[in-house]
Amino acid sequence: MGAKRRTGGETTRLGPVHDTEALNEQVLTLKKQLASSLAENKLLRVAKERMEVELRRAEHEGEQALRTGGLVEGVGPTAARPELRLLHALKAKTRELQDELQAKEAQIGELSGQTRGVRVKELEIQAKVYLEEARRLRELFDRQASEHADTEQALRERHSYELTVKEQELEALRQERSRLKKQNGAIDEELGLAAPLVPTLASEVVTLKAKLREALMRQKTLQKDKERAEADKLAIFQELNEANLRLEAELKQERTKARRFERMHHAAASDLALAQAELLRATRS
What we know:
Layout: H1 20-72, H2 77-193, H3 199-227, H4 233-284
Coiled coil: 41-264
Keywords: Coiled coil
Region (Disordered): 1-20
């Protein structure tokens, strides 16, 4: 009945929250502290109820003693003295129990009004701070995820657009190459008529065809590079640019050679016409 009980220690000061795992651990710590405080208060309430039971039992014994004293009062003062002493002892015990009960109630009130109240309020404040921190971290994570998704979408759209442009440029080069191939085929046919007069023309034509075959080989290589473009878009863009430059240079060379072959064809035709005219004059003379 004597010494007062101590509460379960001071409230633990928790640091700032930096991640979700730390937040969960700190919330668990708060729950344990709150459970400990409630258990201590429960023990105090049990002690208070026990004191009240003892007080009621003492009052009951006092009433029984008073009734017993009334019954023996007619016997004489000497017979009543033990009962009076018992009554005084019971009253003293009752006052002692009342004082102890008041002390216990004061202790419970102090613990409930100060220690538990302050700790619970502090725990509530800390829990609110941690929840706000968790909400802030969640919003930051969602915002970063959204920005990352927007950036990825923009990059995909830009890469898709650039790939489409490169494919269109490549298709235009293919059409130009096909047109030049047809044109060179016609030139080959015309040059075949003048081959006896220009022996070196056949060698140039063979060289041109070899270059055309090389261009076709490079075109196949570009097609394979295009199939790998999904794995490395930046690399295929660079290779396409280089291929475009090479094709444009070769097409420029082919145009130059085609013009040269055309001039040679006209010159050969003129020489042939002059030779035929000379032959005709020689025949007539």
